[in-house]
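Ticket #4471: structure export looks truncated?
Reporter: QA, pipeline team
Priority: medium

Steps to reproduce: submit the single chain below to the structure queue and open the exported record.
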Amino acid sequence: MNYRTKTNISRTIIYIILILLTILCVIPIWLLLVNSTRSTPEIQSGISLMPSKNLILNYKILSGRGLNIWRAVGNSFFISIFSTLVGVYFSVMTAYGLKVYTFKGRKFINNFILILVLVPMQTSIIGFYQYMSKLHLLNSYIPLIVPAAASAATVFFALQYLDSIIIKDLIHAARIDGCSEFAIFQKIMIPIATPGMFTLAIFGFVASWNNFFTPFILISKMEKYTLPMLVQTLRGDVYKTELGAIYLGLAMSILPILIVYSLFAKSIVSGIAMGAVKE
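Actual output as written to the record:
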């Protein structure tokens, strides 16, 4: 068996494995979308891969029992967009400062950021809740947006990304030309780091959109519920027999994520790949 034949066989096996993994990933999402168009008796009758005709009826059931689904969608978009903007901008600024400037304690800060990445949010939620309560920020979106500026995971990724693209000679040249430090960051570093920032923005948006734990702890007013919080209420007795409406609510919660990934998949891959390259 020659080299070309072995290569073709190996490639075929890899393609088969990838196709099987893709099917395993897609089928649960497809079943969720299909069930959102089916009635409760149809869902109870068994699995179907073909959509039905009850989408409008399920939506009427979903929106007709006191749930303002579109308000929750708007709340989720508001929090996700602003937390993403704040998180990406200030995280890249922090990573830029740690990469460009030499100061005492820089290594300690880098190591401390790595430790914070490994610490789950749940371990500090009690203290965070008490702190927000003393600041009278409960039932407010501020605790869900502003802390994104100090996201350890985002700073860590930005550090790895800037390590592969930063050009210190360009920064020195800008200083010689009289450019201020903030102007260097704004006019030189941000355009260079745009692909990585774009990838960070996508991941930040998805994480904020899917975040259920923190809003559930801080928000108690139903008109301020995010979409994942509103979907959680579908588990109540009002909807326990309306499976189609439940599936529709779940489908509406993941649909924006599917759209984001389908539109920007190439940007996500290229941004991660570029951040992994070291000179």
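Status: closed, not a bug. The export was complete when the record was re-opened. Leaving a note from the reviewer for reference: Residues 3-62 form one domain.
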